[in-house]
């Protein structure tokens, strides 16, 4: 009897002890993290102190990246492989964050200083995380990676906080938007693509002609447009505002201007295409992936999206690509048409940053330096289907023909103002622009200039209170 | 005769109705499995045909390669499994105490157990994260991104409701059993351990299934408290099939199916106990 | 704590406490580990959350955490009276949706669960299989439910196919994932996943009601509906009370299905899809409004406690009858 009592007691005690003594077992949890905290002294973090021993001491680096390519972590490690072979002392641990929860995660990490060594940030997030003190200044190291001359102005601007000189990130790859069109559909409608994408007017009349032509016995909608349930809601709309002569904020970034007449003109033009029946309304509940797939199937003749689609069209369907789709062999790429105020498109992408809490900043910087080399830039662009950030590569004559069209787009493309409040601003914009798409889809009131203007005014007042904080 | 016939007919139609309900209930699950056998572009197109000329079984192979899914799977099993053990143990102990003893503060304890369910998770999120950081700084025990950190949080989350379930189960067991055991010379502890516990196996299993399923389902804390794939659980990993530039819906559906299957298997194996546990315990709530 | 107990205890509090401790020593031993544990992971974080609700926490002060500037009740004031408070943006929709969602889901899950339980509470061939099959949705993780139903609700998806092409219930295929139908797109999957558990609970409870009570009622000439109202419902009241509470709490704090159906926490579920928890999470993190966010959470908690108080008063007799 006594014996059994003892057994139960010891189990109870043991379970309490186990909980109290979590530390002893932490090794199996984050060995990367644990190794990182023990292996390097914090004093080594100052720049330029890379002593010879630091180059050979075993070091484990952790990197947070986003799902940029089909097999995010494996692809990243593949690109890093030559470097890791050359530096056997470096172990790289890759964690892939999904865009949905990345913001939450990076915010908490930046608050606490508990995070990775190398951090990929969407270009619009750099100023926000920098102003929170989450990432390191790397101004005086930029010489290592070529400095301003090596990058496009639109991506260079995203590496710092607007109005300040300090640099916080190195552009890694560039995201730009251009038109994909189905050559067969244009042929069937007897429209010359060379003329179609010149101006807003020619674009619209081309769409009107293409709308409803039959391809392989199926009717084609002129344009595919993702609606509210997309992660690109904001990026889809701003090119048209810019082309109409509007802008997000005033030049001094003190007030909101996207809801002025020009801004509303841009939104009215773009959403008007959908309202006038040039878009299959079903597409307004879809996201970019679904729109791209519809385009692949010849359900729409024109879509606006990024460089990755060309890569998807070249990837076998067994690997999740779309090489079996009709449009995979019928598509061509063109820049966006010019509006009243000229051509424009959205330029985004991602930067690489050194996390403030990192204990291995020198080693982290070496990795970033490697990823900025021409070879690594090319390798990652090939594997991910993104546009490389290195200007020499973008402007190189060897660039893939599809990529060239995007390289062209980067010349007139714009990025968002590099203000610390951009994160909240985009959250607010996404919400209100989502409502605009609901209006267009006919599930939220009547579509007219007044209702769109009202929604944009609501967005403006919300953004105003954010930037004045 | 006619009366019996009409009763028979009524019974038959009720049975038919029941099976229709069963079909509607199960349909989405069948649809998930069916969808997972299509290619990505077929899924994106919208599937509206029940014909499946060439099932794409390769999805079930590729899902492990595209995302390192096995690791997330292992982590979920470990974290949820251990959570179940700990929360189950706490629930058995505290549930028994609350069911059988009226001690000073027992009502307060009961009420605070219900009250814990009232706190919005989001309110916890930051404090727990920063408390974990503090524990690491002050005591040197890493908590964020460790199995133990996750298990601690989940155990604490699911203990209150498990206590509630266990308590109602113990209440349903007649008191006389212990009383006669005590008269026979057992201590209170022995009465609990030798008489009540064996009788409670169905209730414990029911509670454990409940804990496991709830932990398996948790999302928000798993996102924030884990920072590397060493510890991240399925809800974190499964989202990686959704890329910004290329979403693998085919693999996502295959993974969803795979995630659901082991839970179903466990459930099938234990459902006999589960249902008898519910029958005994749920009656009292 | 009953008043007579309190007075008794005051009379010779020390000895009685000692005695109570001795007789209940075993109970204390059983419960203390749990209490400590809950103190650590429930009480301490909650206290911090309350402190946070009185701090000015934004992008620039977040790193200081509890040392951020103390501003008293300003967060509450701004939350209640300042229209430009970041947490308030779009919160009206979230509150409205949560009210509808909670009421509809809670009611239907309980009603449908009870109805099917009664249907199942009679012998028929394959009853065991049917019961197990019906429970399957409960085993599907809610993050899978969100993704799966997200597919099914598409305009070209299977649900519209069944409703429009197969059954011709509607003329044109409706949108489910945008516009006001969104609320149904989140309510129905929640019910789908929720009712089977209730069915089993009710079925279990029904099986403990002795058949002879119904027999006696039948002899008295009571028809089925009367039997249900006068026998079944009263006997099930304690079970219903408890399940009502837990459903209520679960639904008010529902997050997973909406979050995974719409952009995995980054998207905006729309004016008819947003719930309190998705809105609060998005606004707190999206706007770095953790102070106001905590204040809102705390207010919500107080409101919930009031509801639970009402619930307790309503069902006190049933709960104490245990």
Describe this structure in words.
- The complex is a heterotrimer of chains A (about 475), B (about 280) and C (about 325).
- Chain A is α/β, with parallel strands linked by helices and about 475 residues long.
- The N and C termini of chain A lie far apart (about 70 Å).
- Chain A is about 45% helix and about 15% strand.
- The longest helix of chain B is centred in the N-terminal third of the chain and has 34 residues, at about 1-35.
- Helix content of chain C is about 70%, strand content about 0%.
- Chain C is flat and about 75 Å long.
- The model of chain C has no long low-confidence stretch (mean pLDDT about 85).
Quick overview:
With 469 residues, chain A is an alpha/beta fold.
What's the Cα radius of gyration of chain A?
Answer: 25 Å
| Oligomer class | heterotrimer
Profile the largest sheet of chain A: 6 strands, mixed
Beta content of chain C comes to under 5%
Number of strands of chain A: 12
Number of domains of chain A: 2
Secondary-structure-based class of chain A equals alpha/beta
| Molecular shape of chain C | flat
Topology:
The complex is a heterotrimer of chains A (469), B (285) and C (322).
Chain A: H1 2-20, H2 22-25, H3 31-39, H4 52-56, E1 59-65, H5 72-86, E2 90-96, H6 99-112, E3 118-122, H7 126-131, H8 153-156, E4 170-176, E5 178-182, H9 183-188, H10 193-196, H11 200-210, E6 214-215, E7 218-219, E8 221-224, H12 233-243, H13 261-278, H14 288-296, E9 300-305, H15 308-313, E10 331-334, E11 347-354, H16 361-371, H17 374-384, E12 387-388, H18 391-394, H19 401-412, H20 422-441, H21 449-467
Parallel strand pairs in A: 1-2, 1-3, 8-9
Antiparallel strand pairs in A: 3-11, 4-11, 4-12, 5-9, 5-10, 6-7
Helix pairs in contact in A: 5-17, 12-13, 13-20, 20-21
Chain B: H1 2-35, H2 40-45, H3 59-66, H4 69-100, H5 106-116, H6 121-139, H7 147-171, H8 176-183, H9 188-199, H10 201-216, H11 220-225, H12 234-237, H13 249-281
Chain C: H1 3-11, H2 13-23, H3 25-52, H4 74-81, H5 91-120, H6 127-139, H7 142-152, H8 158-166, H9 182-207, H10 211-219, H11 224-252, H12 256-261, H13 276-286, H14 290-320
Helix pairs in contact in C: 1-2, 4-14, 5-9, 5-11, 5-13, 6-9, 7-9, 9-11, 11-14, 13-14
């Amino acid at each position: 009897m006594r014996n059994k009592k003892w057994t139960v007691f010891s189990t109870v005690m043991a379970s309490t002890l186990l909980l109290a003594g979590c530390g002893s077992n932490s090794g199996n949890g984050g060995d990367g993290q644990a190794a990182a905290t023990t292996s390097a002294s914090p004093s080594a973090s100052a720049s330029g102190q890379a002593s010879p021993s630091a180059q050979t001491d075993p070091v484990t680096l952790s990197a947070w990246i986003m799902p940029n390519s089909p097999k995010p972590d494996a692809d990243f490690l593949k690109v890093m492989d030559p470097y890791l072979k050359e530096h056997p002392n470096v172990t790289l641990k890759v964690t892939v964050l999904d865009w949905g929860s990345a913001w939450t995660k990076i915010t908490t990490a930046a608050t606490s200083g508990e995070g990775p060594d190398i951090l990929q940030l969407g270009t619009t997030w750099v100023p926000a995380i920098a102003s929170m003190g989450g990432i390191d200044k790397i101004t005086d190291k930029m010489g290592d990676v070529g400095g301003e001359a090596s990058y496009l102005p639109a991506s260079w601007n995203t590496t710092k906080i607007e109005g300040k000189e300090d640099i916080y990130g190195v552009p890694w790859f560039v995201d730009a938007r251009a038109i994909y069109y189905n050559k067969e559909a244009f042929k069937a409608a007897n429209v010359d693509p060379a003329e179609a994408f010149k101006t807003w007017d020619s674009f619209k009349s081309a769409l009107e002609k293409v709308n409803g032509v039959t391809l392989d016995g199926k009717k084609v909608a002129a344009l595919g447009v993702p609606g509210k349930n997309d992660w690109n809601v904001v990026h889809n709309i701003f090119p048209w505002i810019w082309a109409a002569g509007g802008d997000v904020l005033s030049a001094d970034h003190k007030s909101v201007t996207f809801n002025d007449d020009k801004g509303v003109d841009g939104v009215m033009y773009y959403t008007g295409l959908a309202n006038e029946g040039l878009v299959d309304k079903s597409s307004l509940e879809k996201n970019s992936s679904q729109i791209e797939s519809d385009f692949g199937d010849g359900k729409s003749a024109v879509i606006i999206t990024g460089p990755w689609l060309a890569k998807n069209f070249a990837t076998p369907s067994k690997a999740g690509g779309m090489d079996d789709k009709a449009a995979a062999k019928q598509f061509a790429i063109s820049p966006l048409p010019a509006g009243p105020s000229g051509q424009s498109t959205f330029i985004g992408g991602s930067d690489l940053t050194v996390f403030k809490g990192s204990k291995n900043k020198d080693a982290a910087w070496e990795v970033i330096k490697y990823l900025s080399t021409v070879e690594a830039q090319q390798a990652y662009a090939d594997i991910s289907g993104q546009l490389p950030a290195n200007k020499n590569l973008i402007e190189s004559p060897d660039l893939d023909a599809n990529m060239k069209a995007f390289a062209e787009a980067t010349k007139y493309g714009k990025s968002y103002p590099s203000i610390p409040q951009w994160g909240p601003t985009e959250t607010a914009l996404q919400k209100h622009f989502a409502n605009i798409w609901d209006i267009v889809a006919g599930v939220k009131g009547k579509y007219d200039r007044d209702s769109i203007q009202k929604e944009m005014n609501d967005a403006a007042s919300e953004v105003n209170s954010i930037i004045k904080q | 005769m006619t009366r019996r016939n009409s009763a028979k007919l009524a019974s038959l139609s009720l049975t038919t109705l029941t099976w229709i309900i069963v079909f509607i209930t199960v349909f989405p699950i069948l649809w998930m499995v069916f969808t997972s056998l299509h290619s990505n572009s077929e899924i994106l197109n919208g599937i509206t045909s029940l014909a499946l000329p060439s099932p794409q079984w390769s999805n079930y192979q590729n899902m492990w390669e595209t995302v390192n899914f096995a690791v997330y799977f292992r982590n979920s099993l470990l974290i949820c499994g251990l959570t179940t053990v700990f929360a189950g143990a706490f629930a058995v102990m505290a549930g028994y105490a609350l069911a059988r003893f009226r001690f000073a503060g027992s009502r307060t304890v009961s009420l605070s157990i219900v009250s814990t369910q009232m706190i919005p998770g989001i309110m916890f999120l930051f404090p727990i994260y920063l408390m974990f950081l503090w524990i690491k700084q002050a005591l040197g025990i890493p908590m964020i991104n460790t199995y133990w950190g996750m298990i601690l949080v989940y155990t604490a989350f699911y203990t209150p409701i498990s206590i509630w379930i266990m308590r109602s189960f113990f209440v349903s067991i007649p008191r006389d059993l212990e009383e006669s055991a005590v008269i026979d010379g057992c201590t209170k502890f022995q009465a609990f351990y030798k008489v009540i516990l064996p009788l409670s196996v169905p209730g414990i299993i029911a509670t454990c299934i409940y804990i496991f399923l709830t932990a398996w389902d948790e999302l928000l804390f798993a996102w924030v408290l884990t920072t590397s794939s060493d510890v991240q659980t399925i809800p974190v990993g499964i989202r990686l099939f959704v890329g910004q530039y290329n979403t693998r819906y085919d693999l996502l559906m295959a993974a969803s199916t795979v995630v659901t299957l082991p839970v179903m298997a466990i459930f099938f194996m234990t459902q006999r106990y589960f249902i008898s546990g519910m029958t005994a315990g749920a009656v009292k709530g | 704590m009953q008043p007579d107990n309190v007075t008794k205890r005051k009379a010779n509090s020390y000895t009685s406490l000692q005695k109570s401790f001795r007789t209940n020593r075993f109970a204390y031993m059983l419960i203390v580990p749990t209490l400590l544990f809950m103190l650590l992971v429930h009480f301490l974080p909650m206290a911090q959350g309350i402190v946070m609700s009185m701090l000015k926490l934004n992008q620039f002060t977040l790193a200081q955490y509890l040392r951020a500037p103390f501003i008293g009740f300003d967060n509450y004031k701004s939350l209640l009276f300042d229209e430009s408070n970041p947490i308030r943006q779009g919160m009206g929709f979230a509150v409205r949706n949560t009210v509808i969602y909670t009421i509809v889901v809670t009611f239907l899950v309980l009603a449908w669960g009870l109805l099917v339980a009664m249907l199942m509470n009679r012998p028929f061939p394959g009853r065991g299989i049917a019961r197990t099959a019906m429970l399957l949705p409960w085993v599907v993780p809610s993050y899978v439910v969100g993704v799966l139903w997200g597919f099914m609700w598409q305009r070209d998806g299977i649900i519209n196919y069944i409703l429009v092409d197969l059954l011709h219930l509607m003329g044109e295929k409706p949108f489910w994932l945008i516009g006001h139908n969104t609320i149904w797109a989140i309510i129905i999957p929640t019910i789908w996943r929720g009712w089977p558990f209730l069915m089993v609970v009710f079925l279990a409870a029904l099986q403990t009601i002795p058949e002879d009570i119904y027999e006696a009622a039948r002899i008295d000439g009571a028809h089925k509906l009367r039997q249900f109202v006068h026998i079944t419902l009263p006997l099930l009241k304690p079970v219903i009370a408890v399940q009502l509470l837990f459903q209520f709490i679960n639904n008010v704090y529902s997050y997973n299905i909406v979050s995974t159906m719409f952009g995995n926490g980054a998207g905006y579920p729309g004016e008819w899809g947003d719930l309190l928890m998705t809105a609060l999470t998005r606004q707190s993190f999206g706007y770095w409004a953790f102070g106001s966010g905590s204040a809102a959470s705390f207010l919500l908690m107080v409101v919930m406690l009031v509801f639970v108080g009402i619930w307790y008063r309503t069902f006190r007799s049933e709960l104490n009858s245990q």
